[in-house]
Amino acid sequence: MNLKKLAGEKAVEFITDGMTIGLGTGSTVNWTIRKLGELVKQREIQIRAIPTSQQTSYLANELGIPLVTFAQSTELDLTIDGADEFNSSLDLIKGRGGALVREKLVAAASNRLIIVADESKSVEKIGKFPLPIEVVPFAWEVTAKRIEGLNCVPTLRRVNGCPYVSDNGNYILDCSFGYIENPAKLERTIKLLPGVVDTGLFISMADTVIIGTSNELKVLSKKN
Ligand SMILES: O=C(CO)[C@H](O)[C@H](O)COP(=O)(O)O
């Protein structure tokens, strides 16, 4: 069973006619986007979408999903996206796919954030994998040193030996903090450092997580 497909396709049920939605990035939300593309093609639903990456923009264009920008709409009804880790409070780590800055901007402009993931992304404490932090390329070495001072090991993300460059023209540092005891505090601390654009910590942003497990689909919702 493809658990990413299971969770990704389920999320389409939350999209209703006339919505303006945010489309996340990654292999799980790609299933949502493909399913949505079928509905749009069959004229079963009319929506507009803002993509969180070039990659998602290409896929949505290929499927005929109408795209807009924040110039047309500054408020989104719903965003559907993936995650690298989530805990029972629905705090997330995102950004392994490199789209964290736009993903956070789109999520923050949305009335609701739905995360789609397979069960491997569920953790007791976030921080199992390195935390992606997007930084300005200028003086990135200095920024990395400052982040290192917060007790972690930052590694510049590379592709074929060259620094990975995000859609915003920035670099990404993958930072091994180990398990993060207080994600909200860490987020505030990192964001105060010069050179940091944003972090992959998404704290109190997700409303719902749809999880594909080998037995069933599980839905976690924010406790109000
Ligand atoms: O944060 C992300 C990209 O920046 C992705 O949503 C995250 O990496 C999950 O990806 P996948 O669904 O392929 O496992």
UniProtKB/TrEMBL annotation:
Positions annotated to bind substrate: T25, G26, S27, T28, D81, G82, A83, D84, K94, G95, R96, G97, K121
UniProt cross-references to InterPro entries, sorted A to Z: NagB/RpiA_transferase-like (IPR037171), Ribose5P_isomerase_typA_subgr (IPR020672), Ribose5P_isomerase_type_A (IPR004788)
Pathway: Carbohydrate degradation; pentose phosphate pathway; D-ribose 5-phosphate from D-ribulose 5-phosphate (non-oxidative stage): step 1/1
One example GO MF annotation: ribose-5-phosphate isomerase activity
Alphabetical GO biological process terms: D-ribose metabolic process; pentose-phosphate shunt, non-oxidative branch
Record GO cellular component, one term: cytosol
Alphabetically ordered keywords of this record: Isomerase
Broad class of enzyme this protein falls into: isomerase
Active-site positions on this chain: E103 (proton acceptor)
Catalytic activity from the UniProt record: aldehydo-D-ribose 5-phosphate = D-ribulose 5-phosphate
UniProt keyword Manganese, yes or no: no
EC numbers on record: 5.3.1.6
Family: Belongs to the ribose 5-phosphate isomerase family.
Self-association state and partner proteins as the record states: Homodimer.
Alphabetical list of HAMAP family matching this protein: Rib_5P_isom_A
Protein purpose: Catalyzes the reversible conversion of ribose-5-phosphate to ribulose 5-phosphate.
Listed NCBIfam families: PRK00702.1, rpiA
Protein name per UniProt: Ribose-5-phosphate isomerase A
Source organism of the structure: Brevibacillus reuszeri
Gene name tied to this protein: rpiA
